[in-house]
Amino acid sequence: PPPAQVTLQLFQHPTSASTDRRRMLRRRMLTTAAKAAAAAPAAAGAAASLAGKPTLLKSAAIFGSANALGFGISAATGSHLHLDLIGTGVFAVAAVATAGADARQRCSAGAVALWAVKLSSFLFYRALQTQHDGRLTEILSTTSGAAGFWFISFAWGWVVSLPHTIAAGVPAAGRPRFGGPFDVLGLGLFAAGLLTETAADYTKWCFKADPANRGRFCDAGVWAASQHPNWFGNLALWSGIFLLNVPTLAADLPAGAGWLRRGARLLGGAASPLFLLSLFYGQATDAIANQAELARRRYASDPRYAAYEQRTPLVVPTIASLGRLFGR
Fold first, then answer.
1. How far is the C-alpha of 294 from the C-alpha of 123, rounded, in Å?
2. For residue 13, how many C-alpha atoms fall within 13 Å in the half-sphere facing its CB?
3. Closest CA to 201 of 127, 120, 122
4. In this predicted structure, what is the pLDDT of residue 222?
5. In the list 45, 88, 189, 209, which could disulfide-bond 120, CB 3.0-4.6 Å?
6. Average pLDDT estimate for 92-100
């Protein structure tokens, strides 16, 4: 998900809470995030200047610098055009900066960069058409709100990119040869996820652009197989990047690293898809924010929506939902 969507998921609260309580909680979150956002880029940059520039610190410095730039533009101009261009586009910069010379690492960097350029380009084009995202008006209307937005964007980017970044820090000499089962499976899953995410975004864009669909929910194309196929595609492609990097993460490098160190690398890499899985299902079930409830209210007058919600899985398609998609 782009940073704008992640921020909305983390800043919205269920409608059962009172308006005053929601505002108070949001104010506290924004104040805390603002303080962290002010310190994070400087700390990351200072840490990365240390000898050796470990890849995790290098990644933090790149994400921190880019999001600090985004915050500066937001605070100075109030524009919404740059939000996803910077927040998502920086993935490509961080990936290329940690590409290394190993074939698997370069392939991983290329996959991350391809996804980031594709998604940030689409979201920037969409922003040029709409000019303004009304969902973010309240959050970005204050300096503390903008700081909170860009700190979440920084944290999201750094965590999601962990499979590639941690693998980049493993010594290159002696890495497992590229071309094994994990490489094939990882690249295949990445490609499937990228195609699914792209198809979901393009289908919904075209659906909304048709005046005949005004006020209707989208169940066209891949949206017939999942209520959130774009999230599924994103989860699949990052799971693929994790699998692609598993041979490196699990390698006995440096020599005698032991299972504790190798296990820690694998768990760190797995944090990316696990974080996305919890985030997506949290929002799909209204554990985070209240998007599902809002959708039910919006389409309450359409009896087809209740049937769609009942038969269509939240994120991961089932055999039955895929059968309906390809049986059309």
1. 23
2. 13
3. 122
4. 96
5. 88
6. 95
